[in-house]
Amino acid sequence: MNCSEVKYYLADYSKGLLLDEVRKEIHEHLNSCKNCAKVFDQTIAVNSKSGLKRAKVRHNKEVIEKIPIEGGKKRSIKNTVNKGFPVPSKSAEVSHLRNKLLLKTNEIENSKLFVIAGIISVIALGVIFALLVFDHSPNTFWSVEKISGYPVIESRILTDQGIIKVGEKLYTDSESRARLKVGTVGEIDVEPKSEISINETNSSEYKLLLSSGKISARTWSASKLFSITTPSATITDLGCMCYLSVDENGSTLLQVKSGWVLMENNYRKSLLPSGTSCSSDISKGLGTPFFNDASVKFKETLRMIDFENRITGDLPVLLYEARQKDLITLFHLLKRLDQESRGKIYDRISLLFKIPQRITREGIVNGDTDMMARLWTELDLGSISIYQNL
Q: Is the CB of residue 311 less than 8 Å from the CB of residue 305?
């Protein structure tokens, strides 16, 4: 593949949209061609800062809109229209008759307007009253159907289908299951022994609270429309199918079956692709994502690092157990651990994957923002737009 072909595909390459064979060719070309590598690095840097540029554009637009037009403030339509054409001179008698006719006409018109205004007011009050009493807009409730047993919405037993409003809770006992319809975004199956409620819903956001139990969620709309809060984390859909459970201590376990999910707690974030899991503890915070088929030793050691702060002794064990497939875990640790640990992680990644020379050990150890974004893309972990959520 020559330079012109590589440059043509660079945008799609940075977004992870190409076939594996094409990505491999481009990756090898970038490692040997400094010119194309420079262009690619510029592409990543531009994408990483796109959010700031959009904000600046919005700010400039607001400034431009505030600039007064030439000659000062905008003139109203009234000031730009002639007040009236000159009336030809008439005799006093004709003028007096004309004024009487105009006065009578105004009285009739005012009476009509008063009646019309009264009718409109009555209709408006009726509409407002109906909305207050019979408000069944999609922004105030979700439809819910029974799958098995007898789920309960507040104190109402769900025998077939029904609705759950914002602020209400849905309970399932050991033999009950229910299905929530998340507007046009997706659906959620609520498993036995669960408690879930709707926090907020509108045309741009759907928020739930899972207090305990287990659910499975499937979405098929734009990302970030749907989120679930638990006692120890917030899960934001990036277009996915996932399982979410909360135990009696408020700890959360997220398992992603397809797509991507963003999991966060306080200032820590985890990006989970298909086939990975991540847990959070109500007192110890958010863990690191890992592939479900990782070795038992790898997962046990990762738990010690995440929740027992046993980094010095356990990090070498984790790195030894790491496979190339476990790069998603190692990358998250690069973002979280100290400089000394980042150096060890970089060395292990370089053994598992041929890192381009322009991504240096020093830059990664020092947490260079653009270099981290390039490493994410080069490792083929996901698109740059996904990475920007981290």
A: yes
